[in-house]
């Protein structure tokens, strides 16, 4: 199965039914699982045998989704969570505690920026944001003795910069910290960060993995390629008193990080994904390669159209030669640059509001990654909690319109865009 191409993994991976079992993973809508022996249950709790005993910690439907996404990303294991925000939070808390620090690229989704700048500091965890285009030397100067990780997004949301994996992974290796990547907008079909030096990957599965705007969830994938015993990570190498002295690196090998996330943080914080949503995400993965091809093709055609439109002042899309990350996009996203683009309308925010309200096919919603085209003004919505300075730092200009290009017929999308742009200029 490891030799399967990703299109086959998306359909057949992660689940191997036995004779008489369902052809696709069934929805196991049960909180608990029955056993005949107390000793067997004890072995489950001690991680001595595989199995399920309570859906917060594991469920057959979620397991099928976790195994499939881990296979598609090229990781060793995964943990499904109740949202993308939960995935980001658990990923950081798994290795950072009060009094510690991490580095993050500044061009982040607004919810992630808030989590890092406002909520984690209340827990005593500090962040330093860096310009992802800064030199390695400049970023290295931001490291502290207590720095535990470096974080970035494959495609910044909504700035759409492409992360310099070579630079960030080299920094992480030099400092012996894990390189954590949010791969939501790229998906494993367009980019596989583990192949470019990442150690942990997270997704908001709500976006392209689901693809149909039905389910909220997230997932953390462990690359199994970081030596936790080489750095300062006692939470993984020393006995966990909350789990009868378990030493994760000794007991779990290259699964230490993801197993600790499950048996310690998911146990205590409970941000579990429902079996029904796991089922929906597994279904979404079946068509992910096909959808990402169409999203990318449509987005490129829309971006090229907008570049020539007299009502548009600027366009940002990594698939355009005019984009600052164009060469990087060709290197890291050779199959396409995903389905999200941004642009500015002549007339600024006021004209942008008229444009969004004039769209008929394209919907005004707080979402990206849907099969349906949708549009948003981030400065007044997803990033409105940030100061204007923070918005600019994260890539959000006041007149920026974020457009998530769906998989409808591209001629229909462009026709709707044109009539809305004309309305915005009256």
Detailed description of the structure:
With 426 residues, the chain is α/β, with parallel strands linked by helices. It is built from 17 helices and 12 strands. The chain has helices spanning 6-12, 38-45, 60-73, 84-93, 110-122, 136-140, 165-175, 187-190, 234-237, 248-252, 256-269, 275-286, 288-308, 326-332, 348-358, 388-393, 410-424, and strands spanning 77-81, 101-105, 126-130, 147-153, 179-182, 200-204, 218-222, 312-316, 340-345, 363-364, 374-376, 400-404. The strands form 2 sheets. A 7-stranded mixed β-sheet has the order 1-7-6-5-4-2-3, sandwiched between helices. Strands 8-9-12-11-10 form a 5-stranded mixed β-sheet. Helix 8 links the parallel strand 5 and strand 6 (200-204). Helix 1 runs antiparallel to helix 3 (60-73) and helix 3 runs parallel beside helix 12 (275-286). The radius of gyration is 22 Å and the shape is globular.
